[in-house]
């Protein structure tokens, strides 16, 4: 994914260099020129954790495994490196596609790109969440943000910053337990979005997606995953284990969140960036 984005950016950069010295520059070239130079000259924050043995997965999910296939000089005189990897869809920084909790809704390959690219806003609830690991983001938190910043813009991507990400990748602190398996589920403790606030976002505001810096959009002690059901039923994807939100302002950035395109997938690894 990283390679794809870099190649796209490099491609845009080179095409604009050519067009700059070319009198026959078309308006399309100028557009890409403007867009690529805007992106290149912006601060870009990577909101993605890397995948390694440390990566945090749900306690019942298959963790990340990397198997080396080749690394070194070949007999033909060139260097060659390649690996196999294996993991659950839901682990590390990832997307929950609507079908994850809503039958018949979009799978990860079906999510329209314009749904996961858009104006980002950060709602900082870290003050409240720091006092309570089981904190639930309330409607009041959302309204308070609006009082200070203005109405949540239509079609925005909402990032909920609980500050819980400061515990990553310490499993004991971040998940509430370092144990694994179904037995460990009862010991999960981390903040999430309250079902009431999820409902309010879907009914009272128009949002494209909701992200959070914890393992799940529902808090650790949830057993009915209501906020998942509410958001995903409305085809609003969730981003989980979002990294580096502390580097974002409350408003004034664009989110690009591109997941791996698994046909029929319920979610998958997500490369999410903010362009400031
Ligand atoms: Zn998930």
TrEMBL record:
Pfam families, alphabetized:
Cyclase
> Which SUPFAM superfamilies does the record match to this protein?
Putative cyclase (SSF102198)
InterPro entries (alphabetical)? KFase/CYL, KFase_sf
Instruction: Identify the keywords attached in UniProt to this record, alphabetized.
Output: Signal
Question: Would the keyword Metal-binding turn up in this protein's UniProt record?
Answer: no
**Looking at the record's lineage, which domain of life comes first?**
Bacteria
Q: Where is the signal peptide?
A: 1-20
The protein depicted here goes by the name Cyclase family protein
């Amino acid at each position: 994914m990283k390679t794809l984005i870099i190649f796209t950016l490099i491609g845009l950069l080179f095409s604009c260099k050519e067009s700059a010295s070319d009198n026959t520059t078309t308006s399309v070239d100028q557009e890409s020129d403007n867009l690529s130079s805007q992106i290149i000259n912006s601060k870009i924050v990577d909101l993605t954790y890397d995948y390694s043995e440390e990566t945090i997965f749900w306690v019942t999910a298959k963790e990340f495994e990397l198997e080396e296939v080749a690394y070194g000089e070949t007999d033909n005189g060139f260097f060659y490196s390649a690996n196999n990897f294996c993991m659950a869809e839901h682990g590390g920084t990832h997307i929950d596609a609507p079908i994850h909790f809503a039958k018949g809704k979009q799978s990860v390959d079906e999510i329209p790109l314009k749904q996961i690219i858009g104006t980002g806003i950060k709602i900082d609830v870290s003050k409240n969440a720091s006092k309570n690991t089981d904190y639930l983001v309330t409607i009041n938190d959302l309204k308070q943000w609006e009082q200070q910043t203005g109405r949540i813009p239509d079609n925005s991507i909402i990032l909920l910053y609980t500050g819980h990400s400061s515990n990553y990748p310490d499993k004991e602190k971040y998940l509430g337990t370092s144990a694994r398996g179904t037995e460990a589920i009862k010991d999960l403790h981390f903040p999430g979005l309250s079902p009431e606030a999820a409902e309010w976002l879907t009914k009272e505001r128009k949002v494209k997606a909701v992200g959070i810096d914890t393992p799940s959009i529902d808090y650790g002690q949830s057993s009915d995953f209501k906020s998942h059901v509410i958001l995903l039923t409305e085809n609003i994807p969730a981003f989980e284990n979002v990294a580096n939100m502390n580097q974002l302002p409350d408003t004034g950035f664009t989110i690009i969140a591109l997941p791996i395109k698994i046909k029929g997938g319920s979610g998958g690894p997500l490369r999410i960036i903010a362009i400031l």
